[in-house]
Amino acid sequence: MLRAPFSNQLIENNNWDVIVIGAGAAGLMTCLELPDHYNVLLLNRNTSKKSSSRWAQGGIASVVRPEDSFDLHAQDTLQAGDGLCDPAAVKMLVEEAPICVERLQKLGMIFDTNSDQLSTTLEAAHSCRRVLHVKDRTGRALVEFLEDQVENKKNILHCRGVRVTELLTIDKNCRGVQVLDGSNLYWIHSKAVVLATGGGGHLFTNTTNPTQSAGEGIALAWNAGAAIDDLEFIQFHPTALKFYGAPCFLISEALRGEGAVLVDINGKSPVDHLKDGDLSSRDQVSRAIMQNMIENNIDHVGLDLRFIDPQKIIKRFPTIINRCQEYGVNPLDEIIPVAPAAHYWMGGVFTDLKAASTVNGLYAVGEVASTGVHGANRLASNSLMECLVFARKMSSLVLEDNYPLQGIKRRSIETKFPIFDDSMNNKISLRIDLLRKSCWKYLGVSRSYKGMKDFLEELHHEDSELSNNYLLKAIKNIPINDSVRFSEQNRRALNLLLDLQNRHITTNLLLKACIFREESRGGHFRSDFPEKSINWKCHSRQFKNKNIQKRFT
Question: Does domain 240-341 have CATH number 3.90.700.10?
Answer without folding.
Answer: yes
